[in-house]
Amino acid sequence: MAQDVVKNGLDFKADPDKMITQTGVVMTYDHMDFLPNSASATEVKGKVIVLVKGHLKDSADATTRFVYNVSYNPKTNLVTQLDRIGTYQLQSDSSVL
User: Residue 87: beta bridge partners?
Assistant: First the structure.
């Protein structure tokens, strides 16, 4: 990952809203999907959707989707853009998707 991406990325900064260990919420990475928009020899652009499952105590899992705009340079093998553009909360029953 390019250093300026790490330095400026929201996901790499201290965020008091992410401190959920005291609430008893357990979150687990589920999977991610990459949706490419464009590609060349020097840049691949697209969106990444990261799905995280979470639950509180004995409640059913709910899925949160984090959506990012990303750019990747295949020549340097570095991510050159990683911008979170939204967080979407879904109910535990996602069978309709």
Answer: 66
**pLDDT score, position 16:** 61
User: Side chain identity at 34, as an amino acid letter?
Assistant: F
Sheet holding 25-39, edge to edge: 25-39, 44-56, 62-73, 78-90
Sequence-distant (6+) residues with CB within 8 A of 45 are 36, 37, 38, 39, 69, 70, 71, 72, 81
- Spatial distance between the Cα atoms of 47 and 72, rounded to a whole number of angstroms: 11
Centre a 10 Å sphere on the Cβ of residue 9 and count the other Cβ atoms it contains.
17
DSSP 3-state percent helix, strand, coil across the chain (nearest 5): 15, 55, 30
Query: Is the pLDDT at 8 greater than 70, yes or no?
Result: yes
In the predicted structure, residue 41 carries a pLDDT above the cut 60: yes
> CA nearest 1: which of 63, 64, 80?
80
Rounded to whole angstroms, the Cα distance separating 51 from 62 reads 10
